[in-house]
Amino acid sequence: MNASQPFRLDDSARGGKAEQILAAARREFLASGFGAVSMDAIARRAGVSKATVYAHFAGKEELFGAVISEMSERYFRGFSASELDPVDAAASLGEIARRFLELLLSPEAIALNRIIIGEVTRFPALGEVFWRTGPERTRAQIETFMRRAGEAGSLRVSDPRLAAEQFASLVRGEIHLRLLLRLGPPATPARIAATAEAVVATFLRAFAPKMS
Amino acid sequence: MNASQPFRLDDSARGGKAEQILAAARREFLASGFGAVSMDAIARRAGVSKATVYAHFAGKEELFGAVISEMSERYFRGFSASELDPVDAAASLGEIARRFLELLLSPEAIALNRIIIGEVTRFPALGEVFWRTGPERTRAQIETFMRRAGEAGSLRVSDPRLAAEQFASLVRGEIHLRLLLRLGPPATPARIAATAEAVVATFLRAFAPKMS
DNA sequence: GTCTATACAGTGATAGAC
DNA sequence: GTCTATCACTGTATAGAC
Description:
The structure is a homodimer. By secondary structure, chain A is mostly helical. Chain A has 10 helices and no strands. Chain A has helices at 16-32, 39-46, 50-56, 60-76, 89-105, 107-119, 124-133, 135-152, 160-180, 189-207. In chain A, helix 6 (107-119) packs antiparallel against helix 7 (124-133), helix 7 (124-133) packs parallel to helix 8 (135-152) and helix 8 (135-152) packs across helix 9. At the A-B interface, helix 6, helix 7, helix 9 and helix 10 of A face helix 6, helix 7, helix 9 and helix 10 of B.
């Protein structure tokens, strides 16, 4: 495997069997990590022979890279904050917080996050890919909102980037770490809404314009 | 291995060779995770034969559990906030933030965090152990400080637990995730101090008593 | 308890027929 | 491209001598 590009899909991966193999690998890797998954298990689940797997992917590492990068892209693409109203900061921040939490705390995202952190020592490139497609992108979205809200006068932000970082950190909170550690059940929508509300309340106390 | 108690040290682990093996295992596991480490490598590094390893530890999993639980305990025991002055909230919170970051961002703590998150699917008990000895304990320390500061009138906290959670989340911030993902070098003391200062400033804007 | 030597299972990867 | 069969190798675990 080329360590600098471990995640590039082979062109032939668009065919039928290749996607079948990729889907099987995704389920196996997400459920068990890298080390505990065998190529036999992937082939069995894909309904093909092991030789066929090797006909489409150079090896286990390349297959793993393909799975992880594809998932990173797929999971974070949907997050957007550009259409939210910068005048009503409270409502928009609440919406951002809820969307962020729904994305961040979904079982698939947690499993992905877990496996990347666990294997980043072996595959350094994965951390970079995940960061750019995930946290970096969401923070940029939030930062843009902060800037617009600042211009609209609904928030008092001298450093939009810092404000976005701190908001994202507040939202991530304790619950994210707890789920990464497999403590407690997946978050319910009610729990997400309550957490978002508490975060927005605190954030607004720090960043609301001075009342005159 | 008994899955509910994978981390209990055998009584014989107090001897000389056993600690030698444990130290070797710690270095190997922390550097490479669970799957990539062989019992051969541990035995070689410890300077004993493989059979001796198996004489002291039932298998690779038990050895791993022993290493992780011992490290969790060792790393988080030092954190304390009980002696800080609750009247000078700004200074004390800054001190808490710096201590927390130094602990959290140390290379050893990052490696430990990483390996636990990566292997918690295979060893669910490790998540519980880490949580209780780590984040739970630090949050309790901070929570106690919040309560004392609230009583002293230097902070306006209606829910000390929530305030402690939010403060800890702010401190953890983006840098912790970046280091978990192996992005960038370890944090410098200057970077830690700057981050702590920014966090305390924001937190105080949200939780400082109203000026009359 | 500690060693050397080895049995045994399971792994990633490939050869060769079709 | 796809299969069956098999390779070489590694890792866990144990037997038996001392």
